[in-house]
Amino acid sequence: MDARAMQRRRGNVPRVAGAAGRPSSLADHPVLALQRTAGNRAVVAVLSRSAAPVVQRKAAGTAKARALARLATEFGITVVREGTIADQARRVNGVPRFLSADEAEKQLAAGGWTAWSPFEKSPDWTAMVDGLARFSATLGGLPSVTEIIFLKQDYDHSSGRLVPRPDVGASFSAGSLLVFQKGTGGRFVAAARRTPDAPSDTTRENVGYEMTHELAHGVVEKAMETDPSVVTRYGAAVGWFGGRLYDIGRNDVQEALAAKRTPPESAALTAKNWEKADVVEQPMAEYMITSPSEDLPEAIAAYVNRPDVLKARSPRRFGFIEQHIAGWRKAMSGRR
User: Fold this and answer.
1) How far from the centroid of its chain's Cα atoms is residue 90's Cα?
2) 131-183 tens-digit pLDDT
3) Cβ pair 125, 67 in contact under 8 A
4) At CA 163, angle to CA 158 and CA 166, rounded to 5?
């Protein structure tokens, strides 16, 4: 029997008190008398029938309520809500110029737009706040986040017609951190350095990882205010040349880049070979081969969430962040 439950049950046993309110004699205690005549098992059975049931108390509030409280107290973020169709229409207002918010809203409605946000008890609430906390602890603060808005999906609007972008998990701009349903499904990133005799090893990260990637864009934007070349220098340091990513861990790539010539085609990293074991400077995820402006935020997200894996797979990326993070922390420390 559980010791705490036994203690509760013992509390229901009548006590024989003397003049001072204490048991007059242990020998006279009815439980001891029963134990002498019937044995321990009988005592347990009697107490089990007479004891009040044990009630399991739930933690106060839902996962959502606890997350909202943490967001407000730890980060000063008090606007956290489900987005409306008008919110989404304003997001694409004037991009391109002839697509107004009214026209965008009409297109959204015609396409069956629906609202979305995580349910009250969803573990995504805890994952989101934990992600922000890890980011803040690593970078010394957050970019200025004024609101978190939930939307079912993002849309591409480059053609003047809104086209769903179900592949986008989150977005951050002008203080608005947008979280899309795709983001709560997590993303796959490398879990370890791949060696020639090992299979691919990836893990599905939660929405907190997705959010740290978006917040890393805010760090890069802040860094560029004082160092406009930071993305360009990062790209050169990790193997970007002519809009393509090459395996900077290879000597022939280093020699080519030093001479400002295109590295060998065999060293180019693509969606088909980025996770191969023979890659020396191994990206954390396929998303890193998109562009330097996405590679750096993804590296920062890995540094926040899985620094040991980043260091093992991509030592040059890890080293670049280590060299610059003091300045980034200083920039973030004055922000909420």
Assistant:
1) 27
2) 999 999 999 999 999 999 999 999 988 777 899 999 999 999 889 999 999 99
3) yes
4) 120
Torsion angle of C-alpha atoms 160, 164, 166, 167, degrees rounded to 10: -20
Q: What's residue 96's pLDDT?
A: 64
Do you find a cis peptide bond into 96, omega within 30 degrees of 0?
yes
Kindly state the tokens that stand for 189.
């990133």
The answer to whether 176 and 170 are in contact (CB under 8 A) is no
Rounded CA-CA distance 201/190 in Å is 6
- Return the closest-CA partner of residue 153 out of 144, 139, 142, 164: 164
pLDDT digits 0-9 by tens, 28-76: 444 444 444 444 444 334 434 344 444 334 446 899 999 999 999 999 9
- Over the stretch 215-232, which tens digit does the pLDDT of each residue have? 999 999 999 988 999 999
Rounded to a whole number of angstroms, the CA Rg of the chain reads 29
User: Are the C-beta atoms of 190 and 285 separated by less than 8 Å?
Assistant: yes
Nearest Cα to 175, choosing from 72, 77, 282? 77
Between CA 128 and CA 134 the distance in angstroms is: 10
Q: Across the chain, which distance is largest between two alpha carbons, in Å?
A: 99
SS3 content of the chain, % helix, strand, coil (to 5): 50, 10, 40
Strand, helix or coil at 136? helix
Q: Inform me whether the pLDDT recorded for 211 exceeds 50.
A: yes
Comparing C-alpha atoms, which of 37, 38, 15 is closest to residue 26? Answer: 15
CA distance 321 to 238: 11
